[in-house]
Amino acid sequence: MEQKQVAVIGAGVIGLSIAHELAHAGHAVTVIADDHDPRDCSPLAGAVWFPYGVSLDADVIELSERTRLRFEELADASRGIARRSGRFIVRLPETDMAWTDALPGKRELTQEEVPDGALGGFRVTVPVIDMSKYLVWLRAIVEQLGVRFERRLINDLASVEADVKIVAAGLRSPELVPDAEPIIPRRGQIVRLENPGLTDWYVDDDAPGGLTYVIPRFDDIVCGGTDDAGNADAEHDPDIETGILERVTAAMPELQGLPIVSRGVGLRPGRSEPRIEWITDAASPTIACYGHGGAGVSMSWGCAERVADMVRER
Ligand SMILES: Cc1cc2nc3c(=O)[nH]c(=O)nc-3n(C[C@H](O)[C@H](O)[C@H](O)COP(=O)(O)OP(=O)(O)OC[C@H]3O[C@@H](n4cnc5c(N)ncnc54)[C@H](O)[C@@H]3O)c2cc1C
């Protein structure tokens, strides 16, 4: 294999996973990213594995499934990854649940496990990723593979020297590569509670009061949420937090009174579908990999494998 100099723009879950796969394949990889922009959302992700907020086409399902299998292999508390059983609530007859068919431990919920007004739901076992631990671990193993990191803002891809450039800059990617499709911020607000030892997660997408989810990590519990398309306000809203706490405690009364340990707002990089392709009109070979909406963690390894294949096949 010919070793290439590859520059990855972005150090979120997508950029780091791509850097891992390319370095593992023997390429000389540099990750370039600026720091702490409120539009960077990987640290905010819940993160429970499932293809949320993306079109459920065959490609998305395949990339998600490849990612799930990687997380299953990697599952370990020291990496921030656990395999956890939880409930997915179904309220609308048209809800597409085909993506759950291959999941371990799948069974229909009993009447007692379903909130009033819901049609039913499923219990499945999937990876849960504590991003506060996982991103630290992922960056460390990427560094061990010899990947270099540069902290700087890229305003123009021409300022980057490399045989191949990968744009994995999340919501800000279209500032670097032209895109005929809009990328839309989808605001998500969360509040984290102290975890007395809960492990069961709960997701109710279409709850009457709004998106409701509870994701116990190791030390805390991520409670959400919102998915407000077109809203790029990264400020915390106390009224929204009150609503989230009302919804999650109604769904899981055992959360009542648990201390709040932290809170956050993130902007999901919304697009009709993730963009993973060569940019044909770029001055030098460039791949776009962004627009993963609410499923960037859930698709990360599958996308990274795909990008590594594209570089190898060129
Ligand atoms: C509240 C919330 C809950 C979520 N829950 C889940 C979940 O449960 N499961 C799931 O799969 N997903 C979840 N998501 C979605 C997930 O977080 C995103 O899809 C994913 O993090 C996108 O990753 P990314 O690497 O593409 O972008 P980002 O994490 O935004 O990273 C972008 C990177 O690009 C860099 N960058 C951008 N522009 C430039 C530039 N011009 N120059 C230099 N560097 C630049 C930034 O510094 C950053 O390093 C959630 C999101 C939110 C907000």
Rounded mean pLDDT score: 95
Oligomeric status: single chain
CATH superfamily: FAD/NAD(P)-binding domain
Q: Say which molecules are bound, naming each kind only once.
A: flavin-adenine dinucleotide
Give the biggest beta sheet.
9 strands, mixed
Radius of gyration from CA coordinates: 19 Å
User: How much β-strand is present in the residues?
Assistant: 25-35%
Structural class: alpha/beta
What is the CATH level 1 assignment? Alpha Beta
Shape: globular
What is the tally of beta strands? 15
CATH architecture: 3-Layer(bba) Sandwich
Low-confidence stretches: none
Whole-number tally of structural domains = 1
List keywords for this structure.
314 residues; alpha/beta; FAD/NAD(P)-binding domain; nine-stranded mixed sheet; six-stranded mixed sheet; 5 helices; 24% helix; 28% strand; globular; binds flavin-adenine dinucleotide
What does this structure look like?
The chain contains 5 helices and 15 strands. The protein has a single domain (5-313), classed as FAD/NAD(P)-binding domain. The longest helix has 18 residues, at 296-313. Helix 1 runs parallel beside helix 3 (131-144), helix 1 runs parallel beside helix 5 and helix 2 (58-74) crosses helix 5. It is α/β, with parallel strands linked by helices and 314 residues long. The structure holds flavin-adenine dinucleotide (FAD). Residues 9-15, 32-34, 37, 40-42, 44-48, 153-154, 168-172, 175-176, 188, 190, 224-225, 266, 268-269, 290, 292-298 line the site of flavin-adenine dinucleotide (FAD).
